[in-house]
Amino acid sequence: MPQPLDGIVVVALEQAVAAPFATRQLADLGARVIKIERPGAGDFARGYDRTVHGQSSYFVWLNRGKESVELDVKDTEDRRLLDKLVAHADVFVQNLVPGAADRLGLDAATLRAAKPGLIHCSISGYGADGPYRAKKAYDLLVQCETGLVLATGTPDAPAKAGMSIADIATGMYAYSGILSALYDRERTGTGASLHVAMIDALGEWMSQPAYFSRYGHEPPRRTGARHPSIAPYGPYRTSDGQVFLAVQNDREWTVLCRDLLDRPDLVADGRFATNPDRVDHNEELTRIIESVFSARDAEQVTTLLDAAGIANARLRTPEDLTRHPQLTARHRFRSVDTPGGTMSAMLPPVEVAGQEPLMGAVPAVGQHTRAIRAEFARDAPAAP
Fold it and tell me: Which CATH number applies to 233-316?
């Protein structure tokens, strides 16, 4: 089946999460992604855990559909092969430690001087200049620097996000930036030099709480599983557990009071008249809601909320996601081969009618080295 990025070659000198997440999505769309790995150990994300048939859960998530080539970029022969790969590439992605690409002559200015049509994407923690430019960055550290950790958790204890949110944000902006550059190149014939900094990517995602704190002149509200600035929004106890609900506007608040709480008088109550009022009196509001919900089990409350058009959810574990009834009913999982066995992987989020993402196998370290060496030993460098 034809794919949107058929014929596009991506060379990725990448490791960890952010860059691999961007290039994996390109691979799912049909790009040929050649992943350069350290001889022997490979991408250090391979060693994060051994939970998926002996493979890292991070690595199998981020690297399906790629070709793995072991190269020592400081070795003369290996560097010659890397230069041939870049000469044939449409896209080059790197997230080496700060300054390494420049020292190796793999920076955008150098590579695009030889090949102006190349799309060069660098990913860093803090950007190419400024006082933090040489500072190493990992996901948790960027969560700290952008204020996310102090905006998450409970009043007693801040907390990190439960997944690699800084890396994921960065990978998504790199991915969309590369797609935009490919589109622009179709019109202009010219490549692009892209730089995505983790602090910028997660900073964008943190803008609302940052604006709220700066212009509201108050510190972050750490409210656990409740929303810091919307109410009612979060978990509420039932007779056998809890249900999460979200009221987004005064119309829904009226429906909740009338149809579920049997308290239409609350609509005109000054404590709850507007959303800011409800946030200010959230503890009182929670007691009122739970006094009603506690007489019913979670299934009954969910049914009533659905009938009233009030958004709600049940609390599930991450493992539950792999068996979620909605995803299962929509056939959102596919089998993907890994070096240790077959795994079930979720389809990419964007559905395109008539197309099926490739979702190729996860490579063993260096699995394609011999084939790539043979292929590019024959080939002359591509034209710019």
Answer: 3.30.1540.10
Choosing from 53, 227, 281, 368, the catalytic residue is: 227
227 is catalytic: yes
Say if pTM beats, i.e. exceeds, 0.85.
yes
How do residues 199-229 score in pLDDT, each as one tens digit?
999 999 999 999 999 999 888 888 888 998 8
CATH code of domain 9-206+325-378? 3.40.50.10540
Q: Which of 132, 148, 239 is nearest to 202 (CA)?
A: 148
Domain ranges of the chain: 9-206+325-378, 233-316
One-letter identity of residue 353: A
